[in-house]
Fold these 3 entries.
Entry 1:
Amino acid sequence: MEFPNEFAATMPRDYLWNQLAELPYFRAILRAVESRFYENLPIVAPVLDLGSGDGSFAAQTFARPLDAGIDPWFAPTQEALRQKAHRVLALAQGAHLPFADGTFQTIVSNSVLEHIPDLNPVIVDAFRVLRPGGYLLFCSPSDHFTDWLLGAKILGEPYRRWFNRISRHQHCDSPATWQRRLEAAGFQVERLWYYFSPHALRTLELGHYFGLPNLVAKKLFGRWVPFPSRLNPYLRFLDATLRPIYDEPLGDTGAYLFGVARKP
């Protein structure tokens, strides 16, 4: 059964510019690409944001607040309260969701699951709190995440391990691995697709090194981008440079993987 998207913006949104005005560019381009995916996905209330973080992604992506968000970390949840992108926020572990069986029609988990060491209990509990017919929508680095890193061409496998470590990745899995994991928990996998080309990944990689001024701005002013205006020439430069990545079509492979799974 197909559901409409009850949280899609009624007016077109420029996710790339909006994210660049708020985040370091390497995070902004990835989040902008992902935000656009949700426009055409089945998102029906009540919605749980599994790994709500600082609330920025939900605020930028959805036209109205999601019903609930959970995250295990206090500081990001405090920031999420200010974003007002969730009706309810809770400090909780993904394997022990503080909700009754069948509470939600949709679960969104954007770039979260890859950070959880023991992932299977989280998938099982997500299945529990979904209603029959409900959807789990998620994304994660793929099995190709480290394949095209520039640093790996020089330093090889140690660099790949280091880059995954600073990215706090516990899982970079293939579609086949995700299919097995989700089906073992009871889900039916409706679609898995790759996104983010080799060029896009290398652009993201370099952004980790060029993001130091954003970190300084965050420490000094409490925000990653201190001058989020169309008059900012650096933001205009980033927008023009990253726009082709934002608009690139899906390919047969990619550094990230998006999934749509349904509870029968």
Note: The two ends are 10 Å apart (CA to CA).
Entry 2:
Amino acid sequence: MFKFVRTPIRALALGFCLTLSVVIATGAAAQQSPKVLAIGDSLMASHAISGRSIADYLQVGLGARVVDRSVLGAHMVYRLPITGAMGLSIPAQFRGKGWDWVVMTGGGNDLWLGCGCGRCDRRMNRLIAASGTRGALPSLFARIQKSGAQVIYVGYLRSPGIITPIEHCKDEGDELEARIARLAARIEGVHYISIQDLVPRGDTSYFALDGIHPSIKASREIAGRITAYMLQQ
């Protein structure tokens, strides 16, 4: 014969409430976890193979999945003959919908490779006009915003007291980021994070051996700065 066990109504209710609490908590956590896309050039992509890129550290800091489409050598408007791949165009790296945040770098290769950081007025204006209303960067920002996401533009490292292959690009880099900063100050949903002050004077530990790309230490600290900013929003 089957033996029926009577379960107290109170116990059933308690079990149901606990199950419901877990479901609600899980759903809330899923809603709070932002959907983040990383795009850009070597500043973002360095150390991705070893799992220690800016995007990798950002994922750990936020506790959320970060999809990284950044590529070494990527550009905004400038193209070398061998850079026909879609991934090397930063605007082409942005695709899909449902992102909450798009964290990006870009423009450095256009100035360094596109015009050698000399007589770059035309190239600069193609990236972003002095008014901040026209150019490849404002156009990309607008496209990202139209998708419903907020955009964070991360500036480039500076190398005070260090001789590097890109040291002569400082003036152009300063002007590029000044224009982006002015734009971000006017438009809600566009954010600019400067890392110009990240490297202590004469400290080479923030650079890879080539003196151009960020070291693992720099990638980690840049990600920390981005994470802190995002968590405050």
Note: The radius of gyration is 23 Å.
Entry 3:
Amino acid sequence: MSKIVFLDVDGTLIDYEAKTPASAKKAIAAARANGHKVYICTGCSKAEIEQRDLPELDGMIGGNGAYVEDNGTVVMHQGLSAEDVRHIVDWCNERHLGFYLEANSGMYCNDYMLEQGPETMVKYASGKGADLSAAKQSASRFINSFIHLQGEDLYRSDVNKISFILSTYEDHLDSKEEFPHLVANTWGGKGELALFGDLGPTGITKRHAIEVLLDYLHADQKDTISFGDAKIDLSMFELCAFNVAMGNGGPEIKAAADYITTDVNDDGLYHAFSYLGLI
């Protein structure tokens, strides 16, 4: 029986230096040759994914569920309203927070992101195990991928979600109060040590996007497998029939997993594909 596999990207398919292990590429190619479908299910926008060196896939879920694509066909795209984007942009700028707008056409940042982003991304990569040199290189690549906009040019209507740097954890808590009709998450760290907050449309989750894709494919939930490394992936685990946590994953995702594989850079994806009989 063919399976439908959903892979988180950062820390699952690719490492924290944005590199895809050769063994992961080999595993995905072999699984697809065996008739299984493999999709990424990520918080990243399509523009960010297109900058990554990823293997050939059957499609993607992006923006934590805001965008669904199957073999080049857009199945669903539900982003933030232009009014919400304007409100978030103004709120972040008033608080002097660096942010970037995640759209399929690109990633658009404000002045503060250029100032605060390099140090924050070094912290992110270092916290995931990269040495200082590698962390600085990773941060530089990430910041250089942004399109810098100012003023009203940031009031866009094509935004899936918005990530912003947390000066303190209070920024995240305040965002939940300021935007009660949106979904507020954190990423890049644990608990109150989180580095980023993000805001996206209500009802958009990885789980919901998978449900939409399964309906489009006329596929059965019992044939699904998900892979993740972080708390944001728990919504996938709630739906999919079998769930794999990466060895480098956090305690919440490991506790919810049916199987824990090795680290992303220790052939974790390949080992799990083998264990599951996909290859």
Note: The two ends are 13 Å apart (CA to CA).
